[in-house]
Structure formats: structure tokens, C-alpha cells
Request: fold
Amino acid sequence: MEEMSVRSVPPYAPADRAGATGQLTRSALSWALYQGFRDPYLGLVGGFIFMPYFATVLVSDAVAGQAAVATIGKISGLAIAVIAPILGAMVDMIGPRKPLLAALTMLVVPLIACLWFAAPGNAGLPISVVMAILVAVGVLYTMSEVVFASMLPAAVQPSQRSAASGLALSLGNGTSFLLTALVLWAFALPGSVHGFGIPDAPLLGLDPLAHEPSRIVAPIVALSFAIGAIPLFLFARDTPRATARGAATIRDAVANLAGLFREARRHRDVMTYMVVRTVSQDAGTVLLTIGGVYTAGVMRWGTIEMLVYGLFGTVAGMGAGALASWLDKALGPKRALQIEIAGTLITLLGMLGTSATQILYLWRFSEGDVPALWDSPIFATAPEIVYLTIAFVGFLFQIAAWSSARTLLVRLAPPDKVGAFFGLSAFTAATTGWIGPMLVGFFTAAYSSQRAGLVPVAILLLIGWAGLFLVRGGTTEQVSKPR
Reply:
């Protein structure tokens, strides 16, 4: 094989006037905005609104629907496990991320919008087609995450990476909050709640009987994604171009990827972290995907309740970015991640012990004897308030863990192999991405219980938390700039 010269990724973005004053640079802000406007897919489509609609309305049974959602995660996870490592190695060799990221964005945005046609009955796309679209979106979305995350060293200076990573998550949740509030005000509440400036009927003539308020989130999220991507392509710094020839890229990427494994001893800590992340951080992703379906089933909440539940999640997410940034700086990203995983695990156990007729395993009520705290059309009972409180804290820790996990990977990975390690990170995520949903689906079906289905997620979080003790590095010491 002909030798190839590949220029190393610079370990930090060049300083500029804005960065010198402590403010995020235009490049860093543009990088954060991309995630800020793409993350609503996770909350509105993958989490709180569309996926529960898919499971409870299209599939028409909460238990079978949770198993179907797990199947979607299993298939997309297997595909990602094959594609992501090669993709990560390729982006290190070709250099600039923007062209590939643009192609992925232009593919995934129309597919998300197509979910509008997932109408109930025989009026829309068959369930099998909807599942295929969700699998394709899951694969493309993760591929874009690999490319986007590997831009961090070039787009953002070392001293600003924790802040930029936290800001990206906060923006994502802030955007999700605004879009969820818009859907609630414009489409879900009209006709059910009067006054308070709420329209008398859903805007755009949407029909609640056809579940159009739940389906409209797909084109709204697609439009948000497309608009938010523009600043990154205009202003964010990209990685320099390498000298790799296109015809040799895939072959050499596979060779370089194999080299990472051969040199595993040299990269022991980051490779150990890959395994730890497999069973911890991405268990949180499984929880986010399944959590909305679980909540809708065990709490018996409809579209309005789930929209408000989503608002609580996005408010927590806005605070999660700041929490992650503060913990990263105070304790280092490794200790921060351990705290965040522990918090996610504890709150998950609390959610499993609470339902429409039970509070924290201890207090059980008959169907007609659930205590109401006040007169309200939604969230009036004690179990509902307890569940909301636990879930809010859980969102705070879970979303903060995403930021700390990304910062820790950048801290541990060699600067010239960041893309490859983000590809491996997606590979390890895919390991849980199909094993986790498979276990959820198996336990859900075997015990005919949504609660039993989430027990494997708790076990994965516990293993991941303990595994971080084996990783060295990721402490509070500052990264020194090259002289």
C-alpha cells in the first residue's frame, strides 16, 4: 500500500480576540448551535412525544410498543457498530468534517420530516415503514454526531471546551423547551383548555383525533435542525485538509483502526474508557429512548401530559449543561461523570418504584383511592408529583453526563486520533445501543412488564459507574498549550 502523509489534527483551536477575553468565540458558538438545534429530535421525537405516540397509538399497546421501540434501537445499534468505527477513522484522514457533515444533515432532515405521515389506522405509513425510517434516522443521526463531536478540538480552544460542550447541551434543551411549549400552546391545548391566550382550536387546522398534534413535532424538529446547522457551516473552524487520496481512504482507515487496537496498551486509559462508556453513558441513551414510552404507559399520560413532562425535561436539561461545566472544572470530567451516572441510577430506581398507583415502592393505592393534592386536569395526584420530581432530577444528571462524557474523551484521546476515538466511542455506544434495547425488549416481553424491562438499564449504569475507577486521567489539571 502506498504510503500516505496525514496531517495531525491541531490539539487546540487558534486563539482569537474573543477567546482571550473569556467569551466563547464565534467558532465555538457556531459549533454549539448545531447541537442546540439538532437535539430537539432526541426530546420531541425520540423521547417525549412521537415515540410514545408510536408505541401507544400506532402499535396500540404499551408493552408491545416498548418492545418495538427496543427493536428499533437494536437494529440501528448493530448498523452503527459496523459503520461508526470506520467513519471515525476516515474523518481523521480526510481532515475537514464540514462536507461529510453537510451530506449527513441533508439526508437525515427529510427523513425526520417524513414521520408526519405516520398516521394511525390505514391512513398513513405502515408500522414497518415507520420503524425503517426511525432506524435510518438513528444511524444517520449517530454518524453526524461522530463527525460533529470530532470537530471540537479544531472549533473550540482547550480552555473553552467544557463551556462549549455544556452550552451545546443547554441550547439543545432550551430549543426543545421552546418547541415543546409551541406545540403545547398551538396544537395540543386548543379545544381542551380555554383562556390564557390559548387558541380556541388547533392552529393549521390540525385534527387531534388523527393525532396530528403528536405527529407535527417531526416536521418542526426537521426545520429546527436545518436552520440551526447553518452557522456551523458558515463560521465554525474545521480541521485542516489531509493528503489522503479518496480511493485509499476506506482501506487505510480500516488499517489505522486496526492499529488502534494493536496499540491498545499505549492508549490503555482511553480504551478502558471506551468499554466503560459502552455500559454507562449509552445506557442513559437507552433510558432516554425508552423512558418516554415507559412513562406514558405506567403513568397513563396522554399527549398533553407528555408535552408538559417534556417541558420539565428540557428545563432540567438547560441546567444540566451548566452543572456539567461546573463539575468538570471543579472535579475534572471523570469525577463529574461518576457523580452524574450515580445520580441517574438513583433516580431511575425511584422512577421504577413509582406508578399511577404507587409511590417509591412503599405506598400503594387502589385505583379509586389515589390521593389528589389539588383540583387540576393534569398532575393532580401525589404519585404524579413524586414521579415528576424524581424524573426532573434524573434528567439533570443524565443530560449532564453526556457533556462530561464528551469532555472526558477529548481529554483522554491523543489529539491526532480524536476522530478515530469518537468513531470508536460510537462503536462502543452501539454495543449498548443494540444489547441494551435487546435486554429491555426481552425483559419486557418475558415478564409482560414495562418496569421489568428497565431493570437491565440500572445494572448497566451501576457497572459503568464502577468501571470509571479503572480509568486514569480526566482530573482537574489544565491542558497546556503547545509552545
Q: What stands out?
A: DSSP finds 20 helices and two strands in the chain. The beta strands are 358-359, 363-364.
